[in-house]
Amino acid sequence: MGQDMEACVDAQCALLGLALGAEQRPGVIRYLQLAVGMAARVMDFPLAPADESGNTFTPVAPPDEGAR
Fold first, then answer.
1. Helix (H, G, I), strand (E, B) or coil at 59
2. Cα–Cα distance for residue pair 32/6, rounded to 1 Å
3. What is the predicted pLDDT for the residue at 1?
4. Which residues contact 43 (CB under 8 A, 6 or more apart)?
5. Dihedral class, residue 54 (left if φ above 0, else alpha if ψ from -120 to 50, else beta)
6. What angle do the packed helices 2-16 and 25-44 form, to 10 degrees?
7. Rounded Cα gap, residues 49 and 52, in angstroms
8. Which of 6, 24, 47, 49 has the fewest beta carbons under 10 Å from its own?
9. Distance of CA 11 to CAs 15, 28, 56, Å?
10. Which positions ≥6 away from 13 have C-beta within 8 Å?
11. What does the alpha-carbon distance between residue 56 and residue 61 come to, in Å, rounded to a whole number?
């Protein structure tokens, strides 16, 4: 997975137009590997329909500045 992760970092940096320095690269790759491991654990955890929070976000308009 090491070379795949390096290729993934290279592709993401190119896509986002980010310049990743040589001193930053190992840390970014390690963090991405850590995140992949955490994501696998979360995605493997079984959930039932009752586990859904059911909460929804309903946006509201900000108050009219002239109404004060």
1. coil
2. 10
3. 56
4. none
5. left
6. 110
7. 6
8. 49
9. 6, 13, 34
10. 19, 20
11. 16
Residues in the chain: 68
Tokens 């070379």 -> residue: 3
Please write the tens of the pLDDT for every residue from 6-39: 999 999 999 999 999 999 999 999 999 999 999 9
Q: At which residue do the structure tokens 């963090």 appear?
A: 31
pTM recorded for the entire structure? 0.61
C-alpha 44/C-alpha 58 separation (Å) is 30
Per-residue pLDDT tens for 45-55?
998 888 887 78
- Which amino acid makes up residue 3? Q
